[in-house]
Structures are given as C-alpha cells and as structure tokens.
Specification:
By secondary structure, this protein is α/β, with parallel strands linked by helices. It has 2 domains: about 325 residues, Alkaline Phosphatase, subunit A, CATH 3.40.720; about 110 residues, Arylsulfatase, C-terminal domain (2-Layer Sandwich), CATH 3.30.1120. About 25% of the residues lie in helices and about 20% in strands. The strands form 7 sheets. A 5-stranded mixed β-sheet has the order 3-11-14-4-15, covered by helices on one side. A 4-stranded mixed β-sheet has the order 7-8-9-10, with no helix packed on it. A hairpin with a 6-residue loop joins β12 and β13. α2 crosses α8. The longest helix is centred in the middle third of the chain and has 34 residues. The chain is globular. It catalyses: Hydrolysis of the 6-sulfate groups of the N-acetyl-D-glucosamine 6-sulfate units of heparan sulfate and keratan sulfate. Its cofactor is Ca(2+). It is found in: Lysosome. This is N-acetylglucosamine-6-sulfatase. Belongs to the sulfatase family.
Length: about 500
C-alpha cells in the first residue's frame, strides 16, 4: 500500500536559439548537464513531500531546492526570447478531499486556488496509483492503456506499457512541439525494476529525468538520474524527499465498530499525513515565489492535483484507496494561469485525470483534435475567453482488483486471492474487487451505477444528491428502466476509444 504522496511538476519555459549553458543539478557530488539540444521552451519537473500513513520515502528537500533553482535558472537564461506559456503540474499521491486532505494546504489554496480556479467535481478514473498516473500521462481510460493495478503483471511500467501507451504519452507530443521536458519524482510503481528495463529506461519525450525507482519512499531509495543509478540514504538533510451496508463483500468483512488497535493505527497515520502535507504546502510556496522572482509567474499555468483519493476508517476499512466511493475517487484540482480569473469555484461538470494531458497539450498550442485521447481539454472551463468547450454528462470509473495467489501467513483464515490485509486482517483488495461504474453528474442528477466482475454479479447504485455519503445501495428501489439506461451507458464507456468516450448519450 502506498500512503506517500509525490509532487511532480512540468515547467515549460522559453529557450534561446543558442545552446544552453551547462545546467548543474547537484545530488551530493554528482552533476548532470542539460542537453545542448535547441528547444523553443523547456519543461521542468520536481517531486515533493509525501503523506505518511506508513512512512517510506522519496528525495531530499535540499535536493529538490537545488533542482528547482537550477531548472528555473535555465528559464532565466533564456527569458529574452519569445514566450509560450509555462506549465507546472504538481501531483500529490493519495491526497483525499472528503476527509480533510486539503485542510493543511493553506498556502497552496491561497497561491493556486485563490489565484485561479478550484474544481469542486474532480475525479480520478481509477482509484489506484499506477493506472491513475497512466491515465494522467496518456489521457486514456484504463481499458485503453491497459494498466490494471500496481503490479508488473497488471501492466504497471511493463515492457508492453513501454512499447505502447508510454510512447504516446503527452511528453512525447510536447517534445516534438519543441518543448524541453523535465521530470522528477514518483513515476509508476514498478519503474526501474529489472523486469521493467532497470534504471536505464528513460521514457520517450523526457529531456531530463530524475525518477524514483519503485514505490514511494522517504529514505533509502534509488533514483534513475537520466538513466544512471543514484542511491540515497537516511539523512534528513540530504535524503528526505520533500520537505448499514448492503455493499460489496469487501466492505462487509471489517469488524464494526473498529478495534482500538486499528483506531490507534489510523489516528497516527492521519496525523502523519497532515504533517507531511505541510511540507508539500511549503514547496508550493517556494515554487510560486521563485517564479515570481524571475518574473515568470504571470506566464505560468500551475496545476495542483492528486492521483487518487484515500480513506482512513470510512466503512470500517482501515487505510487505503481502490474503492469506488467518493473518498477514493474525488481528488483536489486547482489551476492558476494566464486568462484564468482568480477566486473561481467551478462545479459545472466533472474534470477527470484523462483531461489533464489534452489540457496541457491545448495550452502548449497543439491541436488536441489531432491527438488520440479519451479525455478533453478543460481550458474552456477555466478561461472561457480562450476556448469554447462542452460539458461531460457521464464518465467512467474502473478498477481491476489485485490479490495474492497464496494465503497471507498473518491471516490464514481468509484464504488466497486477497491483499492489503492490515491492520487486524481487514483486507482492502481482492481479485474480484474488479468493477466499473458510470457516473451521471449534472444539474439534475448525481447518480453512480457500478457493476462488479465477481460470482455475485454484484451491483451498487447511489443517489449522491440525497445520500452524499453513499450509505444506502438503492439498487432495488430504482426504476428498472433507469438501471437499463445506466447499464447501457456503462457498456458503451467500457469499450469507448477517443471521441466515443466523450459522446456517450
């Protein structure tokens, strides 16, 4: 289970017509020089601090500050040339909305949300890290990019992923469009494993690459620094990365009320998550101040979001994501930038992870209609003067359950096929926790219809207008004709590609 967060941003800044001077990114005694390739603009990224349910790790705050300063210096050196808009993408890991995950983020809300647009209805299309991040990168639903879960067999950073969807991710288009690209932080959970090409694999489209090997860690981790292995230890100064239910059987298995041991565990995890988010908040402030100091802030789009939500005790489930409920699929989304009026709170439609790639491409000047994506640009929602757009009445949430083929020795009575069974042998996932949902979200309806791929053919239906906490499965109360319509929409969405994902009626 990943309970850490990561901050990842893209910084697009103008490049001169001459080659760049050496750009030194200090990591201990190691240095890396920027490519001398001429670019019209450069994309820079950096990871940030993490939320801590179970502390594991990332890069150091000092490293991040050095990276950021060096990258923004790159922008200063070429500030005299014609300017396209810069873009910064910040993605936190597992940051919920429903349980107060944005409460510690006072600086971020002031510097991004209050300075631009906050989207009330932002959702992941799959509540798990690797498939969610894959949707962010490609603009595709999981059934099209093929990443099912966080494992290599689940196509997470697998050779198949690398040959297909990764080669069509938005950085590739930006790179072809004369942007210089930079990435740092957590990429995909299996990245850097030997079976996934080891640390030498640098995904196409990235000029500068500083990616965490494997899953989130605060200390004792390895980076791929432009394809070279770089190990970090456990020094804070140099290694810390950021400064009632008629429901599916998984939700019928926890003891209710929760035992004290679980409550103690969750209270501690919740406290640590908020503490770590303060570091994320500080980093956002540092980023904005740096952009302001080099007079690039007014020409920069800054996105802040998370890969998925999170739960900490809801429905007596201890601590994880992977469920179809609001606490796991709703995500924060705030954007500031040129043409975006400040202090906007937008709730006219749903914004999805698959919309980030086309929005970034739209901002960069690429004709989005020429790119194969399932999502759509939401630039028009933030800045109507820049684009005319349409709303989305329906969307898909899908997930493929993950389990262990053998029984967990700590929980022998539960048998095989389960995973994430902690604490107190309460399992958060299983092979048959595989589902697809169609969500109707408009001025008249806020409905969710979900089908499970299990022996029960289990179905859950919620009216979130009258039941925002999804306490009552109203399957047996709904007009059968409504269920039939929802089922047909779900079938269409599960097989949609490109335009057909946006035209479901």
């Amino acid at each position: 289970m990943t309970t850490n967060s990561f901050l990842h941003f893209l910084k697009l800044c103008p490049a001169s017509s001459r080659t760049f001077p050496p750009l030194c990114l200090q990591q201990g005694t190691k240095r890396n020089r920027a490519s001398a390739q001429t670019r019209r603009s450069c994309v820079c990224g950096t990871p940030g601090p993490a939320m801590a349910g179970r502390l594991r790790g990332h890069l150091s705050a000092a490293t991040l500050l050095t990276l950021l300063s060096a990258l923004l210096t790159c922008c200063v050196r070429c500030a005299h040339c014609a300017k396209p808009s810069n873009i910064v993408l910040i993605v936190a890991d597992d940051q919920d909305v429903q349980l107060g995950g944005m409460t510690p983020m006072k600086k971020t809300k002031a510097l991004i949300g209050d300075a631009g647009a906050t989207f009330v209805n932002a959702f992941t299309v799959t509540p798990l890290c690797c498939p969610s991040r894959s949707s962010i990168l490609t603009g595709w639903y999981p059934h099209n990019h093929g990443v099912r879960n966080n494992s290599l067999p689940g196509n997470c950073s697998s050779p198949l992923w690398q040959k297909g969807p990764e080669a069509n991710a938005f950085p590739v288009y930006l790179n072809k469009h004369k942007y210089q690209t930079f990435f740092a932080g957590k990429y995909l959970n299996q990245y850097g494993k030997k079976e996934a090409g080891d640390v030498g694999h640098v995904p196409p489209g990235w000029d500068q690459w500083f990616a965490l090997v494997g899953n989130s860690q605060y200390y004792n981790y390895t980076l791929s620094a432009n394809g070279k292995e770089e190990k970090h230890g456990d020094s804070y100064e140099t290694d810390y990365l950021t400064d009632l239910i008629d429901k599916h059987w998984l939700l019928r298995q926890p003891v209710n009320p929760m035992p004290n041991s679980s409550i103690t565990y969750l209270d501690n995890a919740y406290r640590k998550r908020w503490q770590t988010l303060l570091s994320v908040d500080d980093m956002v402030e540092m980023l904005v101040k740096k952009l302001e100091s080099i007079k690039e802030l007014n020409n920069t789009y800054i996105f802040y979001t998370s890969d998925n939500g999170y739960h900490t005790g809801q429905f007596s489930l201890p601590i994880d994501k992977r469920q179809l409920y609001e606490f796991d699929i709703r995500i924060p989304l705030m954007v500031r930038g040129p043409g975006i009026k400040p202090n906007q709170t937008l709730q006219v439609t749903a914004m999805l992870h698959i919309d980030l790639a086309p929005t970034i491409l739209d901002i960069s000047g690429i004709n989005v209609s020429s790119v194969n994506v399932d999502g759509q640009s939401f630039l028009s929602q933030m800045a109507p003067s820049l684009r005319n757009g349409t709303t989305r009445p329906f969307f898909l949430v899908e997930y493929s359950g993950e389990g262990n083929p053998t029984t967990d020795p700590a929980c022998p009575r539960l048998g095989p096929g389960l995973s994430q069974c902690f604490p107190d042998c309460v399992c958060e996932d299983a092979y048959n926790n595989t589902y697809a949902c169609v969500r109707t979200l408009n001025s008249k309806h806020n409905l969710q219809y979900c089908e499970f791929a299990d022996t029960e053919s289990f179905v859950e239906v919620y009216n979130l207008t009258s039941d925002p906490h999804q306490l009552e499965n109203i399957l047996k109360k709904v007009d059968p004709s409504v269920l039939q319509v929802m089922n047909q929409r779900l079938i269409k969405l599960q097989s949609c590609v490109g335009d057909s994902c946006r035209d479901v009626k």
